[in-house]
Amino acid sequence: MKKKIISMLLVACMGLSLVACGGGNNKPASNEGSTTEEGSEATQPSDEGGSDESASNEGSDEGGSSDGVITVGFSQVGAESDWRTANSESMKSTFSEENGYKLIFDDAQQKQENQLTAIRNFINQEVDYIVLAPTTETGWDTVLQEAKDAGIPVIIVDRMVDVSDDTLYNCYVGGNFKLEGQKACEWLKAYADAKGIKELNIAHIQGNIGASAQIGRTEGLEEAAEKYGWNIVAQQSGEFTQAKGQEVMESMLKSNDNINVVYCENDNEAFGAIDAIKAAGKTVGPDGDILVMSFDTVKAGIEMTMAGDIICNTECNPLHGPRVEELIKKMEAGEEPEKIAYVDEGIFTYGDEVAKVTVDGQDYDVTKVTQEVIDGRMY
Ligand code: GYE
Q: What are all long-range contacts of 279-285, with beta carbons under 8 Å and residues at least 24 apart?
């Protein structure tokens, strides 16, 4: 609420060239450290909600930020994977009433149109910040322009948006998906060389088409396949879910009998693919018929990596709540956060044949999964 007024004032000031008005859309620093203040009623986060859910969550937001409570509207992709569950949990526990926030959580059930409705609801509710984890990269220009016109800062989290004007969002924090794909493929190249595997026939189970996590991981594989002469024998979306991963793997196995690698774009797809491989009477693992690769390293995923069912698992860290909070705190203090911040992520493997990989001249350590690694995993 306050932000809107301030940014409207700012626009007016800029128009009149009033020098005295410099300083950006600062809010009073007194909002900082408001974590113990009592806020307006916390919204009960709801997982069921379509976009209408957030409308019914509309609070009075009495006094806006002056009561120390920061209202955050978070448009979440859905609940398709373990990664997503951990991500939602991180956001909810960070933007809690005790921490001085009112969170309006909207689960878009994997539909961009639900996200567009949610964002418009957030604008109507005059939230202090809009946080968006976008289903797909494109299609955001209009709604983000509406948010900008309303003077509400927008933080993009997890996946990226592809917009014509990058002032339509304030900042982004999330994974570098192309780099994840490149790291995974450099590992595969080194592992295949170390093991003397001459021919790679890869089944490629993609994420939701058009999501940054799919685009980057797919680019990483396609470029490596081209460079190293690998065969991608089948390619289809598993929609980041276990059920679809299983279904897609089943059909890929029926039409290809030479698959020796499966490149799954997340852990849940890998869980489904492994079930399908075993049901087809084939084996996974270092000495099996098929090597399963994955991304995310959620707890169950990393456990399967220690067992060798997943041979290489490239990390994608979902604990974005505190990262988004840091960005909000910066903006609250009148600072401009870094436009794009990528999270550092590791590579976790069954064995220790490959100690490090190099991408664009940069070395990345590879970690062999041990019980200690599993015990330290927070998601
Ligand atoms: O890898 C997958 C989830 O966008 C990074 O989305 C995220 C991806 C993650 O469904 O498990």
A: 279/250, 280/250, 280/253, 282/253, 284/308, 284/309, 285/309, 285/311, 285/350
Distances (CA, A) of 194 to 190, 197, 231, 357: 6, 8, 19, 13
Residue 226 backbone phi and psi in degrees, to 5: -65, -50
Q: Which two tokens stand for residue 192?
A: 């295949």
Q: Which two tokens stand for residue 187?
A: 């590992």
- Does position 225 have pLDDT exceeding 60, yes or no? yes
DSSP conformation class of 335 = P
Closest CA to 102 of 111, 110, 92, 112: 92
Which residue matches tokens 């509406």? 146
Of 29, 25, 19, which Cα lies nearest the Cα of 2? 25
> Ligand 1 centroid to 32 CA: how many Å?
32
Q: Does residue 208 have a pLDDT over 90?
A: yes
Instruction: Tell me the percentage of the chain whose pLDDT exceeds 70.
Output: 83
Ligand 1 contacts (CB < 6 A) are 80-81, 83-84, 158-159, 175, 213, 240, 266, 295-296, 316
Q: In this structure, how many other beta carbons lie within 10 angstroms of the beta carbon of residue 44?
A: 9
Q: Return the structure tokens found at 237.
A: 């979306």
Query: What is the predicted pLDDT for the residue at 57?
Result: 40
Probe target for ligand 1 pocket from 316, 342, 379, with the most ligand atoms within 8 Å of CB: 316
Q: Which atom of ligand 1 is nearest to the CA of 133?
A: 4
Model-level pTM? 0.84
The 10s digit of each residue's pLDDT in 246-278 is: 999 999 999 999 999 999 999 999 999 999 999
